Amino acid sequence: MTYKHIKTIDTSKDFILPCRKDQLERIKDFLPIAKPDFDGSFSTHQLLYGKDGNRIYLIGLGKEKHSAQLEKTFQKLAFETQKHWDKNMQLYAEDLNQDELKKAIIGLEMAQYEIGEFKSEKEKGIKRTVAVASSNAIKNILNEGHYTGETINRIKALVDAPPNIKTPEFLGKWAEKSAKDADYKCTVLKHKELKKQGFEAVLSVGKGSVNKPVVIINEYTPKKSKKVDICLVGKGITFDSGGLSIKPSTNLHYMKSDMGGAAVVLGTVELVAKLKLDINIVGIVCSAENAVDSESYRPGDVIDSYSGKTIEIIDTDAEGRLVLADGLSYAVKHIKPEYLIDLATLTGSVVRTLGYEAAGMFTHNKVMASTMSDIGYKVHERVWQLPMFEEYKSDLHSDIADLRNFSGKPLAGATNAAQFLESFIEDHKNWMHLDIAGVSFGSSPYAKMKSASGYGIQLITEFVKSKAVK
Ligand code: BES
Ligand code: ZN
Ligand code: ZN
Q: For 162-467, which CATH class?
């Protein structure tokens, strides 16, 4: 879909008319209807025909509390009706503020996502243009909404991709192409280089798979200063079988989504580069497949790590924290960022704690926590802080190594994982861990099975924007 700015709407052609709940006066400007059978409720729409036989879609914005998730109503309208649209549609945007318009464009773009990429017969979508009518200067908003929606779709496609295709190497190729298209630097460290540099935890997790691990380093650094403002680290497990501590087979196919954190990191760097934000940002993705094989790492093994700390493996299914440990160590040693944020589909425990409505947030930095929480509400990608009390640390004690990867107890799982990660950040003052296991992948009205949500792109991009030079 492309988006262009027009000053006034052509009322003889098709258009979308946004309406707030119980505020339908605007309709009278376009139609001789005193009381339509539509009340502007959130995520509803109503088709009327104009006197030229043109389509007029009344679309419900709901109440003010719905503004954070406004993309949903536009996504629904486009998803359900665009098959009837001509090449051109118009949107009456005079009554939308900037945030609302951005959300509207994100939603229209999200409706372009095609989940059936691997079907042998695909529906051919037509390229449409939406002309957005407003007397304000909205070009930048249209651009931002378009790029954001497009990036959300691109990371959803990655998370939904099957694990036989989406190998660690595939993620590396994806990043290289993205870097070329959006003009940033991408380095993919392959097996030999990982060995040479000492990414031992990443290598251990990937040992059981023919699809060898990679570490991807994406750098978008437009500023004169070399100092990196933000470093993002993502868990990129392309399939998590659990390894020798094998998972039960029910819903195992969904473990293709265990690279949701990596997808957010890849997508955010791409989007920040496309938006040309004035900020230095580095994205690190640690990617491996956690497979079952005679070569697999075992429970009981003691492995090395990038930091030099040794780790006793209690459970090979607690693999995400291992690959992240190496990514975080690399970040603090070489990138030395002002802010360090990792994202990972890390624990089932966070899903049991917060369900599908919020990511688990772990940090010692109160200001960062409050900023992230506020942004979470604003973009409807919410986070909820969970504790990092020192007392939890004793659960990571190992008799034979520097620490172990699991307490062995079915208690405080998400916090224990966060505590493990904290052992690798060298007391970085501005570190945050987001456990997105419950929010990255789930049910949606647009698919019969669970699928990617796109969670994280708006949250992290807005955080990056809040730190960028205006
Ligand atoms: N990838 C899983 C976590 C997960 C669970 C993601 C559900 C998405 C949905 C992770 O690697 C894992 O298996 N964690 C274990 C850790 C345990 C063995 C210490 C868990 O949470 O059960
Ligand atoms: Zn696991
Ligand atoms: Zn995992």
A: alpha beta
Buried b (16+ CB within 10 A) or exposed e, 285-297: bbbbbbbbeeebb
Decide whether any atom of ligand 1 lies within 6 Å of the 442 Cβ: no
pLDDT of residue 470: 78
Q: Is the CB of 381 under 6 A from ligand 1?
A: no
Measured CA to CA, the distance from residue 9 to residue 88 in angstroms comes to 12
Gap from CA of 116 to ligand 1 centroid (Å): 27
Q: Please, what is the end-to-end C-alpha distance for the chain in angstroms?
A: 29
Q: Tell me the CA–centroid distance for residue 222 and ligand 3, in Å.
A: 34
| Catalytic site residue from 190, 223, 247, 467 | 247
Number of H helices, E strands in the chain: 12, 19
Structure confidence by residue, pLDDT tens digits, 428-444:
999 999 999 999 999 99
Residue type, 104: A
pLDDT at 124 over 90: no
Overall average pLDDT of the 345-350 stretch? 98
To the question of domain 2-137 being in CATH 3.30.450.40, the answer is: no
**Which sequence spans correspond to the domains of the chain?**
2-137, 162-467
User: Is 247 known to be catalytic?
Assistant: yes
